[in-house]
Amino acid sequence: MATTPTRKTRFSRRVPDHVTDELVNVLTDGVTYEFNDLFSRVYENLKLKNAVSGGEEMLRLRSYEKLQNLVSRGMVAKKAKTYRGLESIKQAHSTAVAARAAAAR
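RESULT FIELD:
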């Protein structure tokens, strides 16, 4: 009798998510940004930290995906084509995520 291997449908990311962290850092100042301005700030900050990999266009796609995830989770307000961080945005930072995971253990 053959057994079928189980497939994981999710994976957990164990390294800090630098893109989301930088989005959180930029959006916590309360300023409203259009995506291109927001990405420019995130990209410059990541370059300063040597955390850019995969090229600018790939990073732009990843940033947009992460930003839309924050919008869907209610941490970022989207009005037309502008984005503004809400009070709960700080919960998305990797240090807050790690603290919640440690408390759950």
